[in-house]
Fold:
Amino acid sequence: MSQNGAPGADDAGPTQCPADGPLPPGRSVEDAVECNTARFVDLTRDAGGVAPVYLVVCDADERGTSLTRTEVVALPELQNGLAYLGRETDSVRVRTHPERRVQLEEHVEALSSRDEHDAFEFAGRRFTVDVVRG
Structure:
């Protein structure tokens, strides 16, 4: 721990991170960095001047709706979010094209409507998923 407000080891800036989640990443990853226990995956470097959209995948403790591999890889943002959701990672924020927002929201809603759980499960990992605008 640093003293007197000086930067310390806990204040590390973003660094490149490995895909150490329960499945491999898709080919669309432009960049992946981590800062402490959060990871940021970029599927598009250019949002065309429009605020980007993010799929946010967060580690969860509660039981969730079980997802199949087909359901996960059907959405590249979810596949890449889980690919970078390593055991020591609390959250992954996947940046994507703004025009993907409606498709992301509809896909997440369809998965969520299958049962009463707020979380999901895949390959032994429990997590929540949310779509947010940048």
Notes: The helical segments are 69-73, 76-83, 101-112. DSSP finds three helices and eight strands in the chain. The CA atoms of residues 37 and 83 lie 15 Å apart.
